[in-house]
Structure formats: C-alpha cells, structure tokens
Amino acid sequence: MNNNVLTEVAPISSRDCFYIAERHKTEFTYPLHKHDEYELNFIAHCKGVRRTVGDSLEVVGEYDMCLLGGGIEHSWQQYECNSSDIHEITIQFASDLISGSLAEKNHFASIRRLLKDSETGVAFDMETILRIYERIETLLRLDNGFYQVLKLFEILYELSLSNYRQLSTSSFARVDVTAESRRVQKVSDYIGEHFKEEIRLRTLADLIGMTPSAFSRFFKIRTHRSICDYIIDTRLGYAARKLADSSMSILEICYTSGFNNISYFNRIFKKKKGCTPTEFRNNYHKNKIIV
Question: Rounded to two decimals, what is the model's pTM?
Fold first, then answer.
C-alpha cells in the first residue's frame, strides 16, 4: 500500500520568521496533509467540524485552536458543520524560529516544552482560545515585522502557560517520549520497547526500585495517567498507525499491537478513539491523498 500523505510546501521564505493568513469560507476542502513547519490554527464558527490530528479524531465546537508540530498529519473535515462563515487564522513558522543558545535559556523553558508537546498536536481550552484570539487579531493588524515577531513570541509564551491537552498518541506520531523525571523516562522507554509483549506491574516497579502500589501512585502523580492507561494508549497508537499505513487485517493488528483479545481491542479502541478500528481506517483513507 502506498501510504504517502500530501506534503504541503508552506509559503514561508528563508528570510521570513513566520507566515499568517486569515480566511472566511463556507467549507473545508483541504485533504489530510503535513508539513515541516509548526502551525497555530484558530477557527471560529466551526461547530460540527471533525478535526483529525494524527490518530485523534474529534468533532469540535464553535471555536477551535491547535498548535501542531512539524510532521504530524492533520485536517479539518466539514462533517456536520453548517456554518456559512467559517473564520480561520493560520500562523506557520519554521522549527528554527527559536533555536540555538536562545532556545536553551531559562526564559524559554515553557515555550520549549510547548513546542515539544505540539509534536503530537495540542488543543487549547475555551478560556485560552478567547484570550489568545485578541493577541492574534493584534498580530494581524501590526505592520512592523519586528513587532510582529515579538507579538508571536508573546502568543507562544501565553499558550505555554495555559491549559492544553495533547491530541495524538506519541506512538502514532513516532515521537520519542521525554519526561522530566528520570524514573518516569526509564519506565516509558521500557514500555516503548516492550508494549507488544505482556508487561507486568511488578516488572515496571522493579525497574525503579519501588513496590507495585507505590509505583502506581508515583506514576499517576507524575503523569496524571494510570500506568494501565499509558500502556493501552501506547498500544492503540501503534495499532492506529498500522490501520492508517498498512493493509494488515484488524485481527493481525490487534495481536501485533500487544492485545490478546479482539473483542477487547475493538471495545477499547472505540472507547478511546470514538470510533471502531474499521471506521478509523475508512475515515483516514477517505481523507487521505495518495501522491
């Protein structure tokens, strides 16, 4: 199976820091695509639109704002949206906008973390959307390029301090998991290498010298997820990637992803992804351009 997704060439010259575009339209027509640049996308009057970012499929409300790292597949589909005036503002900037010694300064720590998290796509809550929209409107009105860049840095900083959630699983996006805790990192690395096998709680606890009960509490506090959910999400991300990129049967994908029961696999996939494995595959291929 040819699995190439449309690769967009962003309209940013090597001499520009970023590109911004504002559109008013009645429908979304652009297919599933990816590009090397980061993208901040704000959309208003989009209730009923279905957003695809990696293996995340969600129907959005009246407003939507996401930051997408370079390389993650994404699209917005009309789905159940009946709006006659969809308002979209897109900002794209190169990965080296904040780089080198500047990026390593403490003042950029939260932005650095946000950009890393955006490799799997992040979505912002309504309070953040309404607050940041005013700053984006100001950016649109500015004529001076230097002050535009400063305003973009301000927007990214405010977003880095806000409430956001990651969209795609790291295993689908093929992104390395990084954790501030060395012990969490050690466990994450082990799961990334062994998720296709049976993983015992005792084995993970022994890795970092804890009892199973203490380890479960520690992992939940540090990651805000149970260890069981973390393992399941890793397996589902791998399974979703196989659904998108291969012609393997769903039964084959179930077992090669670390699940040992097809009924459970179908049930947990629908619970976590909002659709069955078959529906996910059909939607992904329907929304995809082969090049």
Answer: 0.87
**42 exposed, middle or buried (CB, 10 Å; 0-12, 13-18, 19+)?**
buried
Q: What angle do CA 243, 249, 255 make, to 5 degrees?
A: 85
Calpha distance 229→220 (Å, rounded): 10
In the chain, which residues have pLDDT < 50? 1-2, 289-291
CA distance 45 to 226: 36
> Residue 122: beta bridge partners?
67, 166
- Burial label for 193, CB within 10 Å (0-12, 13-18, 19+), is exposed
Residue 90: CA count within 13 A, CB half-sphere: 16
C-beta of residue 68 within 8 angstroms of C-beta of residue 89: no
Q: Which residues, listed in sequence order, are joined to residue 41 by a DSSP beta bridge? A: 66, 90
- Residue whose structure tokens are 């689908």: 172
**108, two tokens:** 């950029």
User: What is the C-alpha separation between 149 and 158, in angstroms, rounded?
Assistant: 14
Which residue is it, tokens 């003042």?
Answer: 107
How many Å apart are CA 107 and CA 122, to the nearest integer? 21
Instruction: Locate 123 and state its tokens.
Output: 């979505």
Q: Tell me the pLDDT tens digit for each residue of 177-194.
A: 887 789 999 999 999 999
For residue range 207-245, list pLDDT tens digits in order: 999 999 999 999 999 988 999 999 999 999 999 999 999
Tens-place pLDDT, residues 44-58: 999 999 999 999 999
DSSP one-letter code for 275? S
